Amino acid sequence: MYVSTVGDCVLMRPSDTGKPPYVARIEGIDSDSRNNVKVRVRWYYRPEESLGGRRQFHGAKELFLSDHHDVQSAHTIEGKCTVHSFKNYTKLENVGAEDYFCRFEYKAATGGFTPDRVAVYCKCEMPYNPDDLMVQFAPLCRYHPACVGMTIEEAKKLDHFVCSECSPDDDVKRPQNGFSTSPTADVKVRILEPSYA
Q1: Is 180 within 8 Å of 169 (Cβ atoms)?
Q2: Which keywords does UniProt give here (predicted)?
């Protein structure tokens, strides 16, 4: 059995063996006179377990920290995992099987989220999904290659990118799809690769 401490995030065995393990944060550990160890946990929900369900911008490893508390036998703990902040998760070089991220708290009874709004990017106005490649050419300007008429291969070859929405220079000749490989553009392209790559 895994030895756990308060504050650890753990994988817990589901009663249905066909389901992935549940993820919880240990809030407390208690034992009775017969040395039966119980853990007080706060559950993480996967997007598909929430009232709104999984949405396009939810990452494959995304979890919501819920207000659902419970007491479980310590014997159901399968092992430790790490639930990163969204910012730290996007900086990981390699995402392991036990790496997850959380950017929302979730109220199980109402289906409400905190924060209730997040930044959106691209022409499709979707929040950032770390599983999808995006082209970043300014601190807050990110596009999915397909949304600006590029293939992923074309995006990876770009050195510079001029956005028709952000560029103050109307004299820059831009193709209709809104991007240019012109070396006159000031902004370097940064490819935001999926975290699991």
Answers
A1: no
A2: Metal-binding, Zinc, Zinc-finger
Distance in angstroms (rounded) separating the CA atoms of residues 106 and 2 = 27
**Contact by Cβ (8 Å): 12, 20:** no
Nearest to 164 by CA among 185, 178, 176, 146: 178
Per-residue exposure over 70-82, b if at least 16 CB sit within 10 Å of its own CB, e if not? eebebebbeeebe
For residue 183, what pLDDT band results from cuts at 50, 70 and 90?
very low
Strand-pair category, 77-85 with 99-107 = parallel
Q: Under 8 Å CB-to-CB from 153, ≥6 apart: which residues?
A: none
Cα 136 from Cα 134, distance rounded (Å): 6
pLDDT in tens, 11-23: 999 989 899 999 9
Q: Measuring CA to CA, which residue among 80, 7, 81, 77 is closest to residue 38? A: 77
Residue 160 in tokens: 């510079």
How many helices (H) does the chain have, and how many strands (E)? Answer: 2, 10
Q: Is the pLDDT of residue 165 over 90?
A: no
For Cα atoms 107, 113, 117, give the angle at the middle one, nearest 5 degrees: 170
**74 neighbors 39 (Cβ within 8 angstroms):** yes
For residue 59, what are the β-bridge partners? none
Q: Read off the pLDDT of each residue in 37-50 and give the average, rounded to a whole number.
A: 96
Q: Of 172, 173, 178, 124, which Cα lies nearest the Cα of 149? A: 178
